[in-house]
Amino acid sequence: ATPGVRALQPYQPGKPLGELEREYGIRDAIKLASNENPLGPSPLGLAAARQALGEVELYPDSHGFALKQALATALAVDPGQLVLGNGSNEILQLVARAFLNPGDEVVVAQYAFAIFTTVAVSAGGSVVTVPARDWGADLPAMRAAVTDRTRVIFLANPNNPTGTWHRAAPLRAFLESLPQHVVVVLDEAYCEYVSEPDYPNGLAWLAQFPNLLVSRTFSKIYGLAGLRLGYGVASAPMADLLNRLREPFTVNNLALAAGEAALADHEHVRRARDANAQGLVALVAACERLGLACIPSVGNFIAVDVGRPAGPVYEALLRRGVIVRPLAPYGMPNHLRITIGTPAQMDRLLAALPQALAG
Ligand code: PMP
Predict the structure, then answer these.
(1) Which domains does the chain have, with CATH numbers?
(2) ipTM over 0.85 threshold
(3) pLDDT in tens, 83-106
(4) Which of 31, 36, 86, 88 to mutate to test the pocket of ligand 1 (most atoms within 8 A of CB)?
(5) Coiled coil: which residue ranges (predicted)?
(6) Nearest CA to ligand 1 atom 6
(7) Omega prior to 158 cis, within 30 of 0
(8) How far is CA 203 from CA 20, 51, 81, 112, in A?
(9) What is the largest CA-CA distance in the chain?
(10) By C-alpha distance, which of 163, 225, 154 is closest to 191?
(11) Tens of pLDDT along 303-324?
């Protein structure tokens, strides 16, 4: 393997519920570890996926014609600007494979989504990690880190695991300041949760920036994480490149059908957004009552500083049937990331958390 691959830290996904049953014999565990939708899948999406089970002997439509039509209409873009992926992770991977030659530099922020580094290294890229500011990406510092060898910048808005976000004006200024040879991936996996008036819709900038790609997912607000469906939107020439590189059939029949139906499920999106907004405020208030600081988040999760190494607190929560995410792999050893769950799940967490903190 290359030195870059050997140096990679393994991605540590949220513990699956089944593992808690096997390890601790807990059958009613709750998972607040992967920023999934606690309301479940979009009902319209689920019904469509069930129906699509009737045609699993057929290969999926590799071009995703119907889903792309639906997305193009919903997003007011051309279908030729779209690339579909097996989760938005595949979109990130495609960008890395399409644009990176060995040794090319990839600029990411400290505390950025871990997969940015994985895909960059997997394509032979050399990752330049720029220190964060107030836990969020420091855009001027990232601009200053760009060199002649920089080929790709990955930036999530909002970012996971910190929940930090960028306002329209500074983000636009950042994009304008970049040289032409730099491809920017704006990862908007959580955009549907954000209601701040200053929060930009990256799609509005595609016409101005031919090297910009916006990635989104059906894993979060649409509740379809297990079906693996994401997409990228870019200029038509960039989308064309990625579609040529993409392997056929990575998006399956169920995902194609579910995504198309879920896109029209405005009711589910509205309910999930409202529930998340309430749950987020309530969880922050509860953490404050426990004397725990939170990084202000606009996503469906929050990074909580437990004021001591978070590993034992994480373990103690596990023993009480509550799975959260320790952020030590992100270099945040005192933080846990907690996904906003249903009110009942939050009650369960808040019953367990003081005990877990007490050791
Ligand atoms: N980007 C960010 C910022 C994420 O948090 C995630 C999910 N953890 C993804 C991308 C990838 O999600 P998926 O592959 O399920 O679309």
Answers:
(1) 3-31+267-358 (3.90.1150.10), 43-264 (3.40.640.10)
(2) yes
(3) 999 999 999 999 999 999 999 999
(4) 88
(5) none
(6) 189
(7) yes
(8) 40, 32, 11, 21
(9) 56
(10) 163
(11) 999 999 999 999 999 999 999 9
